[in-house]
Amino acid sequence: MDNRLIKLYELLLSYYGEQEWWPANSPYEVMVGAILTQNTAWGNVEMAIARFEGNLNPEFVRDLEMEALKEIIRPSGFFNQKAVYLKSLTSWYSQYNYDASILRQEPMEKIRNELLGVKGIGPETADSILLYAFNFPSFVVDTYTMRLCERYSVCAGKNYNAVKQYFEQIFEPDAALYNNFHALIVTHAKTHCRKTPVCAGCPLEETCVRVGVERVSLT
Ligand code: SF4
User: Which of 116, 139, 176, 200 has the fewest CB atoms within 10 Å, i.e. the most exposed one?
Assistant: First the structure.
């Protein structure tokens, strides 16, 4: 049992509170957001989503001409490839009748493997969709997670799957906890543990060994 990781979670939760992710009106909007947020800031995703003018649903995207879709999502950047990804994802979702309750009856690993076969979807996007669109207990790892683990000296692993498995071994499958923990890490990475960290006032300040930032003994 890695008490260090548990301690990290408890400190973040007590400092930032419940995060109540993901800000979206439907599972499909989460799926679209998970694609659009690739390589861009969330503010750009919000701008792109607003340009759907209330029509962000799978039938609308399915029927939209590719060029029109590109134009709508232009603010999210990389819109040429993201439009292709959205079409592919929407096509995949059609086998479940665009119905999250139908999809939710399938085994998580089956859905994960299918998502990883969709153009433009890698592990982070697949797990974001599983967790935040469909409430499956699949922990999401991102660069913020890797950075925090390194600085806080949580030996979770060096690659995506190793870190994901590590978190999922320490914490029993729990979609609500995984949801909140990942969101807490993102919030923390934007507030204190930035690229150049703001350690003063950080809720982890007393227990963090700051690997790569400054070397401080654990004792
Ligand atoms: S003390 Fe500094 S390095 Fe450690 S988690 Fe906080 S901001 Fe990041």
Answer: 200
